[in-house]
Amino acid sequence: MQILAPELTDRLLAELLDLDDAVTVNLHIQSIDQAQAIKNIKRKMSDLQKMTIEEQKKAVRAGYDMDIIPTDLATYGEEAKNLLQDLQSRNERMFLVTVLVENIAPKRQKLLNDILSASGIAQKYNCALKRLDFQQEQGLMSSLALGLNQIEIERGLTTSSTAIFVPFTTCELFQEGEALYYGLNALSNNLIMANRKNLKNPNGLFLGTPGSGKSFSAKREIVNVFLLTEDDIIIADPENEYGPLVQQFGAQGQVIDISPTSTNYINPMDINLDYSDDENPITLKSDFILSLCDLVIGGKEGLSPIERTIIDRCTRLVYRDYLQDPRPENMPVLGDLYGLLLKQSEPEAQNIATALEIYVNGSLNVFNHRSNIDMNNHRVLCFQLKSLGKALKEIGLLIMQDAVWNRVTANRSKHKTTWFYVDEFHLLLKGQTGSFSVEIWKRFRKWGGIPSGLTQNVKDLLASREIENIFENSDFIYMLNQAQGIGRFWRSSWGFPRTSFPM
Predict the structure, then answer these.
(1) Residues 241, 423 contacting (CB under 8 angstroms)
(2) Quick one: which of 14, 102, 242, 411 has the most CB atoms within 10 Å?
């Protein structure tokens, strides 16, 4: 191949290798000593200057302007100066390169067609393929993996130009085991297969503008997890768009509609006594109820120390009967906590009880029932939360998170992994649900959980230092289209541009 172009692109080699014909491309590259390369270029520049002087003498004798010299001489002289500058000041080296293209075909006509196709690609990039007449044997031997070049036709190229022919232009991601499909490599068109369980931290995020494919990507991963593993899957669906998919899983999938008019109930007082060997489940449940009451009655300043003490005391009392006889009918409900608060002597207890009354006896009593959902006999659960009103949305999200945590702890004793998907994740990044989400992203890995959040922009995750922990604790990021201003926000937040993400 004759390289006539002053600049080359890696598409030349890529298009040659993409031919459907039987084609073999061989590169023979030999480095030249730096001092010798500079000496050779200077010698060429002297020859060009000599030729320029001779052309100027001819111009004077012919009676026209001596500055008019052939275009080739001017072009070659400028290129020689640039090449010398590259070698002396830009850390470039010189290489002698021989490019051989071998075509093989069963018939002569097919061979001629293949050669024509390859020649067309070479011409497209200002190169030319020349047939090795009377040197076919040497060309064949040079095309074998012997490391021997018998063709004494070489072209000098710098490091940057030679690197164009290095075919390692892409990094493949193809893991084994329970690897899931995540798309195609844009350069090689090979499958991207990754196993999030092999990551140091399997927590994940799906980021992209509306319509970029976040939900579709998550649904595809959910289907792959269902088909390729025995793991459980839980979905938080604020927009009620995952129900049809979960219904396709048959008896192994269940759609749970949480709304004031639904007959599906989740008891926020449910507790898992097998939570952990080294942690008291009552203490942990008390933290959740404190968060729930803080969300309901705390206001901007949150619960006072006296109110927190009263709630903690009543929480421990309300589980006394269940701890003595752990049967489902002894599981307390929110109304039992409300009744205990009314029996306390402190005026703060009366205030707490009054604030809870609308959720116990009032119009928002959807969470004052014992759970009637079988969450243990279905591999795929989908919590639909769209029908919850504005007053119940955040409370419903917090209670749903606690129910998911109970399922994860139950699966831990079975040595079973639980995948947790949260669509419209930005809804859970405020207040008590935000703190609970950060806790999930910090601790789920130890309990066999793999959480995934779907949200629109990275800005949502950098809104506060606490929420930023979710981003920092996610080793899997599936990034789709982002808003145009995200690059500036990214650099100003992190101090440097991050351009690569683990998958």
Answers:
(1) yes
(2) 242
- DSSP string over 62-115: HTS-TT---HHHHHHHHHHHHHHHHHHHS---EEEEEEEEEEE-SSHHHHHHHH
Closest among 176, 199, 193 to 451, alpha carbons compared? 199
The token pair at 391 is 């007053």
Diameter of the chain measured on Cα atoms: 120
Q: Is 431 left (phi over 0), alpha (psi -120 to 50) or beta?
A: left
Digit-coded pLDDT (tens) for 421-431: 999 888 777 77
The two structure tokens encoding residue 273: 């006594």
Task: Kindly report the backbone phi and psi dihedral angles of residue 450, in degrees, each rounded to the nearest multiple of 5, phi listed first.
Answer: -125, 95
The 10s digit of each residue's pLDDT in 212-264 is 888 999 999 999 999 999 999 999 998 889 999 999 999 899 998 888 888 88
As a whole number of angstroms, the distance between CA 64 and CA 425 comes to 78
| Distance between CA atoms of residues 308 and 289, nearest Å | 10
Single out the residue of 289, 260, 234, 178 nearest to residue 421, CA to CA: 234
For residues 381 and 256, the answer to whether their CB atoms sit within 8 Å is yes
CA-nearest of 450, 379, 451, 377 to 417 is: 450
Q: Which residues of 322-336 are buried (b: 16+ CB within 10 A; e: fewer)?
A: beeeeeeeebbbbbb
The CA radius of gyration of the chain, in Å to the nearest whole number, is 35
Q: Under DSSP, is residue 22 helix (H, G, I), strand (E, B) or coil?
A: strand
Q: Are 89 and 9 in contact (CB under 8 A)?
A: no
For residue 52, give both structure tokens.
């320029």
Residue 382, Cβ density class (10 Å: 0-12 exposed, 13-18 middle, ≥19 buried) = buried
Give tens-digit pLDDT for 19-47: 877 888 888 998 888 888 888 888 888 88
| Whether pLDDT at 492 is above 60 | no
Range with the poorest average pLDDT among 48-52, 157-161, 193-197, 405-409: 157-161
Residue whose C-alpha is closest to residue 341's, from 355, 327, 326: 355
Nearest to 194 by CA among 206, 179, 184: 179
- Structure token pair of residue 46: 């002297």
Assessment of whether the complete model's pTM goes beyond 0.85 = no
pLDDT by residue (tens digit) across 431-475? 777 777 888 888 888 888 999 999 886 776 676 676 778 888 889
| CB contact at 8 A, 484 and 213 | no
pLDDT at 202: 92
* Vertex 105: Cα angle to 99 and 110 (nearest 5): 105
Q: Residue 211's pLDDT band (boundaries 50, 70, 90)?
A: confident
